[in-house]
Amino acid sequence: MSTPPTLSVVMPCLNEGTHLARTLATLGEVLDGLGVTYELVLVDDGSSDDTWEVLRRAAARPGVRAFRLSRRFGKELALAAGLEHARGAGVLVMDADLQHPPGLIPAMVQAWREERYDVVEAVKTKRAAEPIVTRLGARLFYPLFRRLSGFDLEGASDFKLIDRRVLEAWARMGERNVFFRGMSAWLGFRRKAIPFEVAARAGGKSGWSPLRLVRLAVTGVTSFSSAPIHLITAMGFLFLIFAVLLGLHTLYNKLYGGAETGFTTVIVLVLMVGSLILIGLGVIGLYVARIYDEVKGRPRYVIREQSESPVS
């Protein structure tokens, strides 16, 4: 494709072989009705099923480009790979399991092209059926993230349409600990939210385990706020005040003969201070680990192979 398309659709894929052909067919019907040129940028994030074979067959058609990562790097980095290879004037990001309804795409494109919004984001009004642990985690994370970073991601999703200049600004954010939703919110620009209900998965199962979700949450918080470190400092001052008051109380009892034998107070203080120190070291360690990841300068991802039809 010698001329850049109007729209690039970026779709990270992980073990989507059972339903990927259906997804691409549904998506193709919607995109063909838009009346704009488009390309599909499909990224296989180290799938263990036949996802790559499906992508390779799809890439035999013009306008479809498939990339296979050398291993599983995670959805955020697979998404980064797709964004960095997108060539369209606008870039649409969506999942491959049809939980992001393709029927919403025309309204998103209209808001981008006709209403001149730089970012059109689909916001969840109702979450799909999820394990209770995932639901509770989301309810805890989003208010916490809002308070710590100042960005409200309640209901946010990766289902977004961004303008080329937003993509270029995002590309200048070279961090390797990628949190796309937070990075998109940080960039700002003129934005419009379109509500949607998350549909049931077309097939397969989610690649997000509770541990991976916790890691993503930690990445989000530590990438956009240093508040946890300040919180540890504040707790240190509170314990200092508590220790001074308790010391004065103990000294008073000692001087006036009211001190009791035993080490209860000492043991409680040691346990409390020791716990605070360990928590503080852990929080600092998280930030040091982020710095370590950045200064190593390794690439975000490695592409094993790619496939697309030759330009005619």
Describe the structure concisely for a colleague.
By secondary structure, the chain is α/β, with parallel strands linked by helices.
Q: What is the annotated CATH architecture of the largest domain?
A: Alpha-Beta Complex
CATH homology superfamily name of the largest domain: Spore Coat Polysaccharide Biosynthesis Protein SpsA, Chain A
Proportion of beta-strand residues: 15-25%
Number of helices: 10
Biggest beta sheet summary:
8 strands, mixed
Measured distance between first and last alpha carbons: 8 Å
What gyration radius follows from the Cα positions, in whole Å?
25 Å
Spans of at least 5 consecutive residues with low confidence: none
CATH fold assignment of the largest domain: Spore Coat Polysaccharide Biosynthesis Protein SpsA, Chain A
**Subunit organisation of the chains:** single chain
Dominant shape: elongated
Structural class by secondary-structure content: alpha/beta
The number of distinct β-strands equals 8
Global mean pLDDT:
78
What share of the residues lie within helices?
40-55%
Name the helix and strand elements from N-terminus to C-terminus, one letter apiece: EHEHEHEHEHEHHEHHHE
Main sheet: strand order: 7-5-6-4-1-2-3-8
Write the SSE topology.
Layout: E1 7-13, H1 20-32, E2 38-44, H2 51-58, E3 64-69, H3 75-85, E4 90-93, H4 105-113, E5 119-126, H5 132-149, E6 160-163, H6 164-171, H7 180-187, E7 191-197, H8 210-224, H9 227-255, H10 264-296, E8 303-308
Parallel strand pairs: 1-2, 1-4, 2-3, 5-7
Antiparallel strand pairs: 3-8, 4-6, 5-6
